[in-house]
Design goal:
Blueprint lengths: L6 H13 L3 E5 L1 H6 L8 H11 L3 H4 L2 H6 L1 H12 L8 H11 L3 E6 L14 E3 L2 E7 L6 E2 L1 H6 L15 E4 L8 H13 L2 E5 L19 E5 L12 E3 L3 H8 L1
Parallel strand pairs: 1-2, 1-7, 2-3, 7-8, 8-9
Antiparallel strand pairs: 4-5, 4-6
Helix pairs in contact: 7-10
Length: about 250
């Protein structure tokens, strides 16, 4: 399939990647969607979910909703979040190729679905947690994803039997982990090339700015055709799984 991006832009990004020593990939919603997931923040999904559950995804993925309406939270969480399968795409293969070349400094994951099975990056920063990690807030016992999926209703701790097992993901309304944000910001600052692969559902702003005397290439991937971002050098509307293998 032919890329829509201008050939001059493609060649320029390809050359910058070829000479780069440190590349950072920030995985956002676009990577999730291309892997078979869906954007719960989109108008279509928000409407569908609200029609089905009576609340928006943003409402139900909040701390207040988890604390006040546990049964409804877990009904939505199990049906919509835990059933969402995210598979590898050629974009991940391209990132693995960069890693094999010694160029990939870090992969910053903004989606709590994490990295698809079978993909291993040396340095992954999971800003918002991971679905595979779940913890009892009372006795601190950890539980895997299958326990959460198979539990009837609210998944209660089978050890202390005093509390609902808490997914170790960042719910809306909670502060980002300061240490992880600092680690991610430092990686972005050190990068020669920064690949931003879709928006962040929390609307956080990683500090992409670097020393003005340094030359850093910032490329944002987005399917929003009207999007413009003065903080990046290029906005690419092609699918990441088509574009990235073509430039690596």
């Amino acid at each position: 399939m032919k890329l829509e991006t201008d050939e001059k832009v493609i060649n320029y990004i390809r050359k910058r990647i070829a000479v780069a020593g440190k590349i950072v990939a920030v995985l956002g919603i676009e990577m999730l969607v291309e892997g078979g997931g869906y954007d719960l923040d989109s108008n279509e999904e928000t409407y569908r979910v609200e029609e089905l559950y009576g609340y928006t995804p943003e409402d139900m993925l909040s701390t207040s909703f988890f604390n006040a309406k546990g049964e409804r939270f877990f009904r939505f969480y199990k049906n919509e979040i835990l059933t969402m399968e995210v598979n590898p795409t050629p974009a991940y293969d391209a990132l693995l190729k960069l890693q094999a070349q010694g160029k990939l400094l870090a992969v910053i994951c903004q989606n709590f679905h994490g990295i698809p099975k079978g993909i291993r990056f040396h340095n992954t920063i999971e800003l918002n947690g991971n679905l595979n990690s779940n913890k009892c807030p009372h006795c601190n016992k950890y539980f895997d994803l299958n326990y959460m999926k198979n539990a009837a209703g609210i998944p209660l701790c089978d050890n202390c039997k005093k509390a609902a097992v808490r997914p170790n993901i960042r719910l809306i309304g909670e502060r980002a982990n300061a240490n992880l944000m600092t680690e991610a910001a430092n990686a972005c600052e050190a990068a020669d090339v920064l690949l931003i692969m879709g928006k962040d559902m929390y609307n956080d702003r990683l500090e992409y700015n670097t020393d003005p005397n340094r030359s850093q290439l910032k490329v944002l991937f987005s399917q929003e055709q009207q999007l413009s971002d003065r903080k990046v050098d290029f906005v690419i509307h092609d699918e990441i799984q088509l574009f990235l293998p073509a430039i690596v």
